[in-house]
Amino acid sequence: MKYGILVNEGPYTHQASDSALAFTKAALEKGHEIFRVFFYHDGVNNGTSLAIPPQDDRHIPNQWSELAKEYNIDLVLCVAAAQRRGLLDESEAKRNSKAASNMIEGFRISGLGQLIEAGIQGDRMVVFGD
Question: Of 37, 77, 78, 104, which residue is the catalytic one?
């Protein structure tokens, strides 16, 4: 089965990010395909490189980044939601005359068309968060 995943909540805010991460890992371990994980609304905060959780806590952005590397997963942050929340890759930072980018490795920024494509290409779209 091929899944599209939509994450609408930020890390550490609600259970949605943890649940999405656990579902994605479990699906991959069972041999399913993840077409794309799209982060929307506060979910874009899963892609920040600036999170510093306590040492004894999980580092959700790092876990997404590591999962993307291990399984070659397409992790996409909604460009409009990311810009509203001050989350930029290098090209968006330059285009908007900002001093730095703050997106963790493994994520990329794109538009809502990527969400639509995930819904079309996947057998199922699984949504986490409001």
Answer: 78
